[in-house]
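Per reviewer request, we include the raw input and output of the structure prediction for the construct analysed in the revised manuscript.
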Amino acid sequence: MGDELQLHGPREKKKRTGGATYSPGTPPSSSSLQRGIVPFHSELDALVLGVLQKGLRGHGTLKRFGAVTLSSCVFDRDSSELMVAIGHVQSAVVAMFKLQLALSFAEIIFISTLCRFSTAYTPADNYLISCGSSVDTTVGQRVFVADDSGSVTLTSSHSAAVRAPPGSVPGSDNATAALYQTARVFTAPSSYAFKISRPGRHFVRLHFFPFASQRYDLAAASFKVSTQDAVLIGASSSSSPSSPVRDEFLLDVARGTLIVTFVPLAGGLAFVNAVEVVSVPDSLFAGPAAALGSAGQQLSPVVPPLQTAYRVNVGGPEVAADGDALWREWSTDQGNMVGSAVTREVVYTGRLNYLTGEATLDDAPDIVYATARELVMSDGGFDSSKQMTWQFDVAEHPASSYLIRFHWCDIVSRAPGLLRIDVYVDSYTAVKDFDLSAKGNGTLAFPYYVDFVLGSSDPTGKMTISVGSSSATEMNSTLPDPILNGIEIMMMHFSSGSVVVVEPTAGSKRQHLAIILGSICGAFAVVSIAAVLAIFFLRKKEAKVQSTPSQSKSSSTPWTPLLSRLSLRSRRHSSIGTEQPPSSFTVDGDMPGAMIPTAVSPAAPSYRFPFAMLQEATDNFDESLVIGAGGFGKVYRAMLPDGTKVAVKRASPESRQGAREFRTEIELLSGLRHRHLVPLVGYCDERDEMILLYEYMEQGSLRSRLYGGAATAERALSWAQRLEACAGAARGLLYLHTALAKPVIHRDVKSSNILLDGGLAAKVSDFGLSKPGPELGETHVSTAVKGSFGYVDPDYARTRKLTAKSDVYSFGVVLLEALCARPVVDPRLPKPMVNLVEWALHWQGRGELDKIVDRRIAAAVRPQALRKYGETAAKCLAERGADRPAMEDVVWSLQFVLRLQDDSGLDFSDVSSLNLVHELTPPLDSHRRSSHGNEAGGEEVQDVSVTDGDFTDVSMRGAFWQMVNVGGR
C-alpha cells in the first residue's frame, strides 16, 4: 500500500490508505495531491513527491531532505502573505532535492524503480491472452492480445465471444477490470494450444469473473480444466464471486506444445476471461521441503503441478503483478491476522544483501523482504504465550498436502545472532530457536526462505501459522522481537481424475478457418453422410447374420477386461453428457481413450483378485496394517487365504498418477521376471478400485535399515550386507536396461524403492514412473522431469532428455546413502553437509571418504574396497550423462569391490576398477542372449570357482561374468 502524506498543523502524519496497491512505474497524477500538500509542478518535483507517496518512506536521502522539509510546508490558501513565504520554502526544497538527486542519481534510480524487476527475468514463453476480445487489452505494463489474433491456436467446435454489460464488472475504473469485460464461452470441449520454445517450469494463470450476457449466464458454468499431464480444475462451479478470480498453477512442461482444455460438465458451459502462460526459472519451488511432523524427513520431491492458494506480503503493502519479477500478486496480511497480539509493521531503508545460493529476485520482490511484521514483546518481557498468528481458510483450497514457504530477512537486528524465532503450523513445530543470521554466515538483511510440507490441514478447514520468540531470548529483553516477511501456501496433489485433451488439428489454426471450410464443404458433407449411413446399415445387417454366441464372450485372458475397464473408465470420466468423447480426445496422457492397449503379454503370470477377498485380507484396509505410503496410495500388509503374505498397494482418491501408474506397473511387471525385481502377484479393478498386489518384503526398505526409526544398532545393516544389497539392486536395474528390445528406465531409483526380502536380498520396486527408453539409433527420450528430490539426474532435469544414465545417477546417490547412512538432503545439518552428494564428493575428491563413513560399519570397511566404491559412486554422479558408466559397468565394479572386501590378499591398487570392467565385459549381444535364455527357462550356468591368485584372462572373465549373470533364477 502506498502512503499518503497529509499535513496537519506543523506536524506531518502518515496515513495508510486501504485501497492503495504497490505497483511501481506510474507517477502520481496531480489529482492525487491532497489539500494541504504543496503542489509540485515540474516533472522532477512530481517524481520526488511520487516516491514519497508510493510508500518508499524511510529511505535515508528522502527522509532527511524530503519529509522533514515538507513538514514545514503548511499553508492557508486564504493567506497571501504566507503563500509568498511558502514559495520561498518551496524553491529551497526543490533546489535541495535537485542537488541531492544530482549527487545520488544512481541511488534515486534504484529507489524510484524499487520492485520493477520484470526486466530482470525475460521469459522464453510469455503468452498473455484476452479471451473473447477482438482487440488487445493493456493491464498495467503488460498487453493481453485477443485470442483470435493467431498467437495461439483455439480449437473449438462450439464457442462464443461475449462481453459484459456496462457496470457488471466491479472496479471498472481499475485497469485490471478491463481484462474481465470479455470472455470466451465453450459449450463443448475446447482448447488453447501454446507453442513452447523452452520446456521447463511455467506459470499458467486462468482468469475468471462470471457475468450475465444476453446469451449466457456465466454464473451457471460448471466445467473442468486440464493439460496433457494434469487436471488443473476438477469441477469448477463459478457461483457468483464478488471479485475476479485468478487461479495460478506452476507446471513442468516437457512437450513442445502446451494444451489447456476446458470441458463443460453435465451439459453446461465453460468460460475463461484470460489465460497467461509464462516460463519461469526451473529453480522456482525446486525444494527441498521438510515434512512437518516427521522429524525433518525430506519430501522427495517438490514436483509440479502446484496451485497457489495464498501469497502474502507480511507487514507490507499489496504488490501488483507489475511489481514482481514473475508477475505474481501479493496480498496484505491484515485479513488473515487473528488473536490479540500487539504487532508493528517494519520498513527497511537500506539495501538488501542477496547471497549466492539463497533467495533471489525471482523468489520474491524486494518490497517483501524490505517490509515485515514484528511481534511487540518489549513492554512485558519474554512471554512464551505471546505469538502473532495468521489463519488461512484452506477449505476453499482442498488438497492432500500443502507446500508452505516462509520468507525472512533480518531487518531488525543490530548484530548477527540476536534474532531467534519459533514457528508453528497447526499443531506442528516448524522451526525452533531459528537463528536467521547463521544461515547467512553472520550477514544481516539477506533474503532467505524455507519450505515445509503439511500433509493435511485441521479438520475445521483452517491452517494456523504462529510466530513467537525463542526461549533463548528469555534472559535478555533487549534482543529484537520475532518477525516474518512473507508467506506462500501452494496446494500439492490438489486434483484427481483423468485428463482430457482436445488436440489442435490442421483446421483449427484459426477458429474462423474451420467455419469457412465448413461452409465450402457443406454440400459435399451432406452427400458423404448419406453414403456413410447407407454403408453402415448394410454392414450392420451383415454382421447380425454372421454373429455367433462365442463372439460375445469375454476374453479368456485376465488382462483384456482390465485394460478395457481402464479405457471405459477414462471415457466415462471425460464424457460430457454423451456416450464417448470425440475422436480427438486423449485420456490420461499417452493412453488413447478410444483404444484398448494391446501391449500387455497375455501370458502374464498375474491374476485379478476379487475386492471382497482383499477387504478380508486387510481387515477392511485397517490403518494398523499400513506399512508405507506414496504418490499412488497406501500400502497394506496382508495374508491371502492360502497363507501367502502380500503387500497390497491401493490407489487413493487424491492420487495424481492414478490409472497411468496402475497400467504401467501391470504392463511392465507382467513382462519382466527377475530375482532382483519385486514380483507382481496380481491386481484388482472392481468398483473403480486400482489395487496392486506384490510379494511381501519382510525386511522393509533399504532406507529403513540404514537410518530412521527402524535402523537401530541391532537392525542396521553391516557393510557386507550393504554391498550385497547395492550389487543386487544394480543387477535388477541392469536387467531393466538390457532385457528387452528397448531399455526400461525406472526414473525413481532411491533407497526407499529398494526392498529387502527375508534373506536380505535386494529387489527394485515401484515402477509407476518407469518409461521405455529410446528406440534403436536414438539417444534419449524427451519427457517431463519426474523422480524424487535429491535423486534426479541434473542432466535430465536441465535438458528433459531421459536416458538409462539417469538411473545410473540416482543409483550413485543410493551408493552414498548406503555408505553414510543419512538422508540425501537434510537442512538441519550445517550448510556444507545439507546435500549428501556435494558433501560426499568433496571428501572423495580429497581422498578422505573414510571420514564420512557410517561409524557403525567404519571398522569393517577395507581401504581398498572403499577406494573403489567411492570411485564407482563418483563416476555414477558425473554431471553429464555421457560421462557416467553404463549399469553393466556399475555391476561389475561392485562385484570387484566385494572381492576386495572379502579377500584381503587381493591387491588391484594399480588398476582402475571401471577400466577393468571394460576389459572384462563380454559382448553385449551375448549378454542379452544369456539374459533372455535364462528367462525362457534355459539351463542356468553354474558359478565358477576361482582360487586366489589365479587371475588369467579366461578365469577372470568367467568368474566375473557369473557374478553378474542377469538372468532370473
